[in-house]
Amino acid sequence: MEYPCFLAIDASSYEDTAHPVAIAWSLADGTVKTTLIQPDEDWEDWDYALEDLHGITQDTVYERGETPWSVIRELENDIDRPFVQCDEPQRCEALLQRLYEACGRDLTLDVGSHSDELSANVNREEWYLDTAFHNQPCDERVRLMLLLWSENKES
Predict the structure, then answer these.
(1) Structural domain includes residue 133
(2) Is residue 1 assigned to a domain?
(3) Domain contains 122
(4) What single string gives the DSSP state of each residue in 61-78?
């Protein structure tokens, strides 16, 4: 089975000035990759309350994060189609835009909603609640989107 590319991003805050701190995406075989993102020089926004949600501290992203350029290079090497499915497409696109802008590049990916292809039988609201989806880190959200997609394909 070949899976679509699902992508999720954890951000520094819920503000418009937020920047990506971690990103996860799936490969065609269903493997999930994730990496921390080292903040660019002008990325200063940080909400300490979100550290409990995604479990990432500012020190961690500075010490262990990959540069925006490295993240983009790996992401583009892994994705064979320029379309990614996300949990919150507008938010993901804005955060991807920040990532690409940090490298002086235009966003090369098209972003859509992971739920667009689901059958009408799927109760999205119930699924989000049952999985505590919005309280999960980005890699777990990608795993959950893969699971939902594969279950939906089987039915």
Answers:
(1) yes
(2) no
(3) yes
(4) HHHHPBPHHHHHHHHHHH
Q: Could you tell me the CA-to-CA distances from 150 to 4, 73, 144 in Å, in that order?
A: 10, 28, 10
Measured distance between the N- and C-terminal CA atoms of the chain, rounded to whole angstroms: 15
Residue positions counted in the chain: 155
> Which CATH number characterizes residue 57's domain?
3.30.420.10
Q: pLDDT tens digits for 16-70?
A: 999 999 999 999 999 999 999 999 999 999 999 888 877 889 999 999 999 999 9
Number of folded domains that form the chain:
1
Contacts by residues 48-55 (CB-CB < 8 Å, ≥ 24 positions apart) = 50/10, 50/11, 50/12, 50/13, 50/14, 53/135, 53/137, 54/10, 54/21, 54/22, 54/137, 54/138, 55/137
Query: Domain residues for 102?
Result: 6-154
